Amino acid sequence: MKIQIKLFSIGLLLCTVISCKEFEKNNSHQEIEKYTNEIFDSLVNIKRDLHMNPELSGNEIRTSKIVADYLLGLGLEVKTDVSGNTVIGNIGRE
Q1: β-sheet bridge partners, residue 79
Q2: Side-chain-side CA neighbours of residue 22 (13 Å)
Q3: Are strands 87-90 and 77-80 parallel, antiparallel or unpaired?
């Protein structure tokens, strides 16, 4: 359960970082808020789904797939099965 929460938090952090990267510095706060509002409902739904379908620590196969699919949907390069059920979303660099 703790891993699921960590994965969800990482996903949320990645979304925030992505939004920071894509928006100009002048309007970044407003644009981040707008982007966060746009994805908020989907993140809440994912969180609820993960809590309704808990997996044992080290066996988060379904959770990893959900996180990977979400990050792919955001257009990120995603690596899976790196170490167990680890999901890595590459946000690139400027």
Answers
A1: 88
A2: 17
A3: antiparallel
Domain total for the chain? Answer: 1
State the residue for tokens 């970044």. 28
In angstroms, rounded to a whole number, what is the distance separating the alpha carbons of residues 89 and 28?
22
Percent of the chain past pLDDT 90, that is, above it, reads 38
Give the mean model confidence (pLDDT) for residues 24-41. Answer: 79
DSSP notation for 16-80 = HHHHHHHS-STTHHHHHHHHHHHHHHHHHHHHHHHHHS---TT--HHHHHHHHHHHHHTT-EEEE
Domain that holds residue 78: 2-90
